[in-house]
Amino acid sequence: MELSVKKRKKIFLLFFLGIGLPSLLLGYFAFRGIQNDQALLEKRRLDDYRRAAEQITSSVDQSISEVEQAFMKILSDLNNSGERDFIQPLKDFKNQNPLVEETFLFRNADEIRFPAAELLFFPEGSLTNSAVSSKQSALNRDFLTAQLLEFRQKNYQKALSSYQRAMEQTNDRQLKGECLNAIARVQKKAEFLQNAITSYLSIIQDYSQIRIADGIPLGVAARFELGSLYLDIGDTTSAIETFVELTKLMIHREWLLEKAQYVFFSQALKKSIQDIFSLESIPSEILDFKETCQNLQSEEISQRERTEKLLFFQERAATDIQAKTPQSFSDLPIPAKRCIVEIGRNVYYFSLLQRGDGKQSSPQDRLGVLFNTSYLKDHMLPKILLNHVPSDKTSWIVLDGQGQPVVTSQNTLSSTLILKTNFAGNFPDWTLEFYHEEPHLFESFLTSRRSIYFYMFLLIGGILIFGLVLTVRAVSHELELARMKSDFVSTVSHEFKSPLTSIRQISEMLQSERIPSEERRQKYYDVLLEQSERLSLLTDNVLNFTRMEEGKKEFEFEQVDLSGLLHELISPIQDRVRHEGFEIQVEVNKTLPSAMADSAAISQAITNLIDNAIKYSGEAKKIIVSAGIENQYLNISIQDFGVGIRREDIDKVFDRFYRGGDELTRTVKGSGLGLTLVKQIVEAHHGRVHVESEPGQGSTFSIRLPL
Ligand code: ADP
Questions:
Q1: What tens digit of pLDDT does each residue of 52-107 get?
Q2: Which has the closest alpha carbon to 358: 388, 387, 329, 317?
Q3: Given 81, 103, 445, 544, which residue has the most CB atoms within 10 angstroms?
Q4: By the 8 A CB rule, do 569 and 607 touch?
Q5: CA of 669 to the centre of ligand 1 (A)
Q6: How far is the CA of 599 from the centre of ligand 1 (A)?
């Protein structure tokens, strides 16, 4: 036992040194490989992202610079011209560069003006020609009389003819317009609605740009009145047409309006249009206007927001600009200073440039270009980003100065932030963040080089475990065999020794003629015979086993009369064991056919089985040997009613040197070779041996030989 433990330890040590250790080393290198690979991959990815970010920010910077340079060129072309000459080139410049929201003049350090701005409306009091109060009408006698008749006496007939006279007598367009307007108004009051319509139509045609008191253009007022008149006479279609046209003209800046004027008319128009659409019965053709109205409304909203944003800038930005801009532009690399000014909820991004050579020029001569950040956000940046993102696993977000998202990619942001970067010169003051979607663990194994290492790892692990199991099994098996062999040697020597001893003792006794009775002597002869038979069976078993193990055993097949063979075999055994009280019952058909067999070998196999039956019979001294034909097979079975075989032993009893583990069985002498030989012999005859056993009840061994 001691020895086997030592051996086992030695084998495991060898296994560990020869296979385990190299495998572990290999595994370690594979693991390091994975780590290095990963680090390299991450570094390469970061480099890609850095490059992309660099390209993106410099691309934005480039676009801004281009705008500044173009602006500078216009300024140098217009070096000595007055403000009026600016308007067209600036308009063109704006139209050619979608990144330009507006251009402005920064004068006297406190005044901002938009020379080329197309604004929907202007600040209160900024339009000098709006305060028109017609001197002509105040001087015209007929006009004054007509006003008296209209407002005091409410004599509309007379007022009408008085206004008509005033109109005929004057050549002044302003007064003519005012007269026609008054005529239309009185016609309406006098309920000459058709006439009023005609009058308003001719105002629209001829006096559209004339402004009446409060500076309201006649074109606006007349169209609004006309629309209402159409409604009064029930012509909804013409009414909506007129209102829509007026809205369109106002959005397209047909007239310069101050904010209050614009807001008044645009709200009145919106309400009138809404009223028409909510009428109970409206002609179907009006529905066609619905879409136009919606489009006009959204256009109006965006223009109004833009106008308000610019006016807000005009009103409030001057001090900020003054604070942020340098006194002289001459030390700047390019004579443009990029600024960000935050007023209220609005953030303005602009470049301020110096007109002239920058040296002797005064701060009056500064011009600015306001950038269109909506265009940058919605059109330029997404396009640039899409062109430069390193992979389709990239998602990105641009955040403004307050950390609010400006632009985000279509795909959702995944968790790994790879890179965060600012724009060149922090203009705009936004940050760009790149995220990279990590592939699923399984997917990354499938696609990356790491998978090779992983599989290698797995393979090595598998081989290790497999090798370990094999080694353990082989070692255990060999050790078990070694144990059984050593058991065998000791039991076999014992087996040899005990019959030899009894033979020797009996022989001595017989020789000394100390046995008086003949009957007694006869008994001793029987014992002598039995012991020598045992010895010869044992020798045969050992010899045959060795031969078979070495593959040297040769069988001599011949026709054998099995019935005769069985009777010949059994009767001496019966004689031998009768004195022990054994009864061997033979149930063999006399007409058994003969079979091809090696009679000596078959005899040995059957003798072994009967010998076992005797050995393991215990107190039940009955044995049945039977033989018969079954489905082209010869069936020989030996049944005893003895100790039986334990369940755990039943599959092993035919193994070499195997002896039953039962204590009871152990008391019986044996070599563990008998059944092994039976099996080898039967299989050499192309037959099979089979056992059925019940512990305590007995066992039946059957041999099946093909006929
Ligand atoms: P042994 O020399 O030990 O009998 P065998 O190969 O003939 O060797 O038998 C192997 C084992 O099978 C025995 O040790 C015994 O445990 C069991 N065995 C064989 N025949 C019988 C039987 N008839 N009844 C009970 N056990 C048996």
A1: 999 999 999 999 999 999 988 888 777 666 667 778 888 999 999 999 999 998 87
A2: 329
A3: 103
A4: yes
A5: 10
A6: 23
